[in-house]
Description:
- This protein is mostly helical.
- It is 68% helix and 0% strand.
- It has 2 domains: 4-48; 57-97, no CATH class.
- The chain has helices at 4-39, 41-48, 64-73, 79-90.
- The chain starts with a helix and ends in a 7-residue tail after the last helix.
Amino acid sequence: MDNGAPLRADRILRWIHLYTGLFLLPWMLVYGASAFCLNHNQWLIEKLNVTPPHWETLRRVCSWECCRLWALRFSFAGEAEVASACNTLSGVTRGYL
C-alpha cells in the first residue's frame, strides 16, 4: 500500500489552508477594525476628540406622488385604494388623484 498519497493530500490541504488564510487576513482585519469603530464610537469620540458629523436634510426625495406611483406599479389595487393608503402613510389628506 502506498503511504505517499495521504501525505501528498495532507500537504496540499495544508497549503490551501495556509494561503486561503493569508488571502483572507486583510479582510478580517478591516472587518474587525470597522466593527470596533462602529460599536465603540463614543469611546473613540472621547479619546480622539473628534466631533461627529452633523447631518442635515436638504430635501425630501420621496413625495406623495412617488408613493402613489410606486403603489400603483406594485399592486393590483385601484387608484382610490392607493390614494387612501398613501394619504394614511404621509399623514396628508389630498382631494385629487
